[in-house]
Amino acid sequence: MKRVVITGMGVISPVGNSLPAFWDSLKGGACGVRPITKFDTADFKVKVAAEVKDFNAADFGMDVPTQRRMDLFTQYAMAAAKQAVEDSGILGAVDPERFGVYVGSGIGGMNTFIEQNNRLNQRGPTRVSALFIPMMIANMAAGSIAIKYDAQGPCLPTVTACATSTHAAGEAYRAIAHGYADAIIAGGAEATINPLAVAGFTTCMALSLETDPLKASLPFDARRAGFVMGEGSGILVLEEYEHAKARGAKIYAEVAGYGNTCDAHHVTAPRPDGSGGARAMKQALEQANYTAGKDSLYINAHGTGTKLNDSSETTAIKLALGEEDAKRARISSTKSMTGHMLGAAGAVELIASALALQNGVIPPTIGLEQPDPDCDLNYTPLAAQEAQADVAVSLSLGFGGHNGAVALRRAED
User: Fold this and answer.
1) Residue closest to 312 by CA, chosen among 229, 370, 374
2) 181 in helix, strand or coil?
3) What is the Cα–Cα distance from 6 to 156, expressed in whole angstroms?
4) What tens digit of pLDDT does each residue of 18-71 get?
5) Would you say 17 and 79 are in contact if contact means Cβ atoms under 8 Å apart?
6) Could you give all domains of the chain from N- to C-terminal order, each with its CATH number?
């Protein structure tokens, strides 16, 4: 098994469209939830979302013709990938046939799907765009990134709902660790703040109906009543350690473990005993050689703010670590600030975890003013805390029972 490290990161998010802006927002407890502006919510119960703000694709090298050929989720992915690739300095330093892309999306080009369906209904089948399929399919972010950066190695988009980009990063880690690539651009993207998606998540009773943006996304709080939809992209460059070292690359953290399990229980609800999530976390931490009582641990929790998720996730953490070690761990849900970015969430939260290790700062769970007695661990309420963790694990739990966990170790000097 080869060692794998993170050498580049990029983010488009509701709390910042660059790595420095994103991290400053997390440290400062900034809330990215606002009233929805992408469509008229007059007939909707849900009024707020965590939208990406001030995004201009041209700022990331996409001219107007390019933008017209890409759904918004692909534009977000391309923008985050540009940041990550430039941050890593990998271009020109890796064999194209050993350079891969593992970038997924939970839903893909839903905005394009809606637009072209409207064309079909209003103007007939001949008016459906020839670009409809290439813009809509969920693998197109990965394909577009690979074309842009001549990445001719393994290319494997994942689609596991809210665990999508955690699995993308984890599978990329395995591919490099087993020698199939020297570097892989990994992550996810999502852009589904539109009437159809919001209506669908509302009718399955997943979204918060709170109209006050500061009280809508409340992970682990007794008042929580659903998640807030977010959007954006998180992209990381994962690289084989010796390859990175040989070219003098900066290293954010080492990717040291990965767990992948399924609840096999229900299409939307997590297994109540938390066993599936616990096994994924335990697998990742065991591979990372985490030692209770010796290594200090930060957990970036899935923490959606739904009644079932947060209580079962608390149970999962205790099951994975044991009661005593679970009480010692520092935990937070950055979804309290970013909302739930669906297929992009795992990668964005892995970026937050790497930055927490690098900077010795645990990002907060904002809004956590009334802790739920069933969620009785240290969720870093309200404000960031200075604390140096040795190991971080990011946990994602997706519809369909998909569980993913990626463990990081702090980069050694």
Assistant:
1) 374
2) coil
3) 18
4) 999 999 999 999 999 999 999 999 999 999 999 999 999 999 999 999 999 999
5) yes
6) 4-246 (3.40.47.10), 257-410 (3.40.47.10)
Residue showing tokens 């941050």 = 87
What is the secondary structure of 81-136 as a DSSP string? Answer: HHHHHHHHT-TTSS-GGGEEEEEE-SS-SHHHHHHHHHHHHHH-GGGS-TTHHHHH
Residues marked as catalytic? 162, 302, 340
**pTM, whole model, 2 decimals?**
0.97
> Hey, which residues does 319 pair with through a beta bridge?
none
pLDDT for residue 385: 97
Write out the H or E segment, with its range, that includes residue 409: strand 402-410
Torsions phi, psi of 249, nearest 5? -70, 150
Q: At what angle do helices 345-359 and 19-28 cross, to 10 degrees?
A: 80
pLDDT of residue 413: 58
| DSSP conformational letter for 50 | B
